[in-house]
Amino acid sequence: MEKGDRKRPIGVFDSGVGGLTVLRALRSQLPAEDFVYLGDTARVPYGTKSAKSVTRYALQAARVLVDRGIKQLVVACNTASAVALEALEAAYRPLPVVGVVEPGAEACCRLSVTGHVAVIGTEGTIRGGAYQRAIRRFRPDARIVARPCSLFVALAEEGWVRGELVEAIVARYLEPILGGGSPTRPDCLVLGCTHFPPLSDAIRSVAGAGVTLVDSAETTAVAVKNGLEIAGLLNAGGEGKTHFLATDGIARFCRVGEIFLGEPISPETVELVDL
Amino acid sequence: MEKGDRKRPIGVFDSGVGGLTVLRALRSQLPAEDFVYLGDTARVPYGTKSAKSVTRYALQAARVLVDRGIKQLVVACNTASAVALEALEAAYRPLPVVGVVEPGAEACCRLSVTGHVAVIGTEGTIRGGAYQRAIRRFRPDARIVARPCSLFVALAEEGWVRGELVEAIVARYLEPILGGGSPTRPDCLVLGCTHFPPLSDAIRSVAGAGVTLVDSAETTAVAVKNGLEIAGLLNAGGEGKTHFLATDGIARFCRVGEIFLGEPISPETVELVDL
Question: CA nearest B98: which of B271, B233, B235?
């Protein structure tokens, strides 16, 4: 790419609103960059769909972002990162593509002292085993426990993110994988779903001080920043604008999206697109 | 339709596996009929999608069932019943089409003594107001409270259907609408989502003995039976076979579907279709 390319926006793609946690982290790391965020709200969730369908959806979504002239694609959806990253790289070469799985796995391996780690995510992500494979690439001796926490998505979207009831639900999922005072208790827990960061406080409270939480959103934002820097594509003089695209339900995108972005989304900034 | 038509199967359509509770009730009411069930598992859930998208999906799904020669269409999805019924009737006339909203609303109005009733469902169903409108058609003086219970879908799919934690979640949703000993306390509660029947015991336990539960699946099955009888289309000599169609994820359809159908589903009986 050429120098003028650095002014192009960064494209962020997710199955819905969960990826707004990744956008939030990206905007915090890269306040002068412009972003185009696409939430495929018409076909959310990807977590329960087949790899073939998810790959097809991801390619369609990326096409829209590529047509908007992005300089970097961030796959903020764990499910799509797990199954569609190679297809995306092949289809849109030489566009740099970063998913959320690799940075999360890498950070987890770096932060774990014992090498005993836990991963939680949607059914699709956990069953697909992408985090488990990525962690083993960085640390072949890792002992990994993994569990889908299907209710967490609904909890976060409902805005039920703290309190006794939420912690009881979190405990029901985490206790079997975090165990008690066992010597094989994981010391690191990867939040392998973009919907989970709003539940961080409840998860931290249940997991206890001995477990470090790895938020894929944060680690991905750092990876994107480093990649752009190395490629000479960082934009120091942008306006930090974000344009939102959604494939359905703008009102809901704004209302629920606010939970994940951490600030209000105005309906006028959201464009409806058909994939 | 002609007499030979009575041997044709009944088509049942849902956004996913929830409609299997309706199929279960239909098979119980009509054990000699054959069924074709289509679960649009690639695009589930409909509850959070726009009316326009849901109508388009419903028309596509119905097309597949019509091409299989059905004599009756049952829209087992509350969201699609709420927004797409007229479009379906217009598109496939003279095929009889029954949704789940009308029978549920009618039963609720018949069973309520006080006329104070409550409706729970997905976000899309409740916000769309179809149950509220249908109830007012049958009983203009009805006092209606309605609430989306978004977590119930995830609970049922996870198989978390009883116990203290489940009842605490149910109570958090129901207490604000069922009130305490208030004289305006509803005496009837419509389960306006096909995913909710597996949670009946927990809901009944929280609601208490003074509240009658209306299961749309049961009332719809009775309505279908009556309709076929009047039209002279009842099949007394069929084999009671069911053929399943799903738009994605056959393994998950069988595994999760079992919770809603109440019996195992063999993968060989499920055909993958593309809409």
Answer: B233
Distances (CA, A) of A18 to A23, A46, A265, B118: 9, 11, 14, 31
What is the pTM for the complete model shown? 0.89
**Among all residues of B, which ones are annotated catalytic?**
77, 193
What structural domains and CATH numbers belong to chain A? Answer: 3-99+218-272 (3.40.50.1860), 102-216 (3.40.50.1860)
Write the Ramachandran bin of A98: left for phi over 0, alpha for psi from -120 to 50, otherwise beta. Answer: beta
The C-alpha of B114 sits at a distance from chain A's nearest C-alpha, in angstroms, of 32
B153 interaction partners in chain A (CB closer than 8 Å) = 154
Contact predicate A275/A247, CB 8 Å: yes
- Please tell me whether the interface predicted TM-score (ipTM) of this complex is above 0.90: no
pLDDT tens across A75-106, in order?
Answer: 999 989 988 999 999 999 999 999 999 999 99
Calculate how close chain A gets to B62, using CA atoms only, in Å: 19
Rg (CA), chain B: 18
The contact set of A with B (CB < 8 A) is: 41-44, 48-50, 53, 123, 150-151, 153-155, 157-158, 160, 165, 168-169, 172, 248-249, 252
Residue type, A67: D
Which residues of A are part of the catalytic machinery? 77, 193
Query: Considering only A39-53, B193-207, B233-247, which range has the smallest mean pLDDT?
Result: A39-53
Is it the case that residue A49 has pLDDT exceeding 90?
Answer: no
What is the nearest CA distance from A250 to chain B, expressed in angstroms?
9
